[in-house]
Amino acid sequence: MAYQFVEGDVRDLNTVREPVRGVNVVVHQAAQAGVRESVDNPRKVTDINVSGMVNLLEASTEADVDDVILASSSSVCRKPESLPYAGEHPTEPVSPYGVSKLAQEQMGRVYTDLHGPRIRPNMAISNFVSRCPRERRERGPGSACASGVSTGSRR
């Protein structure tokens, strides 16, 4: 499986359009990360994370991409009531960064409603939490568990 790393600004729709043409899967890792940065500069974090997600979803819809996978964050949840996080843990972010990541997930859900089954959101934390124990059992002790969210699929 080949991949292409793209360096650019997700807020520029034309920059996003070219790399998604002719691909089946897009892994969306672009973000302005950091809770502290989001507290100091909430407008910047929201602009990059939310506007960038909209651009990626628009470009992926135009290009008929099969899957869009979003790297979300546990920051979408409020402070943990217990650990590990459970799939039904409330999504009540305590920082602008967490709000922007939750907005990305919700934008995936909205695109499902607007554009059909090609965009299928699964909440990051429930997806991660439900997969992690199974992956560790299958791979053995000490194995890492991958996180992320599938926000698009035709299957």
Tell me what the structure shows.
This protein is mainly alpha-helical. The chain has one domain (13-150): 3-Layer(aba) Sandwich (Rossmann fold). Helix content is 46%, strand content 6%. The chain contains 5 helices and 3 strands; from the N terminus they run H-E-H-H-E-H-H-E. The protein has helices at 13-20, 35-40, 42-62, 96-115, 124-139, and strands at 25-28, 67-70, 149-150. It has a 3-stranded mixed beta sheet. Helix 1 (13-20) crosses helix 3. It is globular. The chain starts with 12 loop residues before the first helix and ends in a 5-residue tail after the last strand. The relative contact order is 0.17.
| Separation of the first and last Cα atoms | 19 Å
Task: Report strand %.
Answer: 5-15%
User: Helicity level, as a percent range?
Assistant: 40-55%
What is the CATH class designation? Alpha Beta
Q: Any idea how many domains?
A: 1
Average pLDDT level: 75
Number of helices: 5
Count the strands? 3
Instruction: Assign the structural class, choosing from mainly alpha, mainly beta, alpha/beta, alpha+beta, or little secondary structure.
Output: mainly alpha
CATH level 3 topology: Rossmann fold
Q: Taking strands numbered 1, 2, ... along the chain, how are they ordered across the largest sheet?
A: 1-2-3
Low-pLDDT windows of residues: 118-137, 139-155
Report the CATH superfamily: NAD(P)-binding Rossmann-like Domain
- Which second-level CATH architecture applies? 3-Layer(aba) Sandwich
Largest sheet: 3 strands, mixed
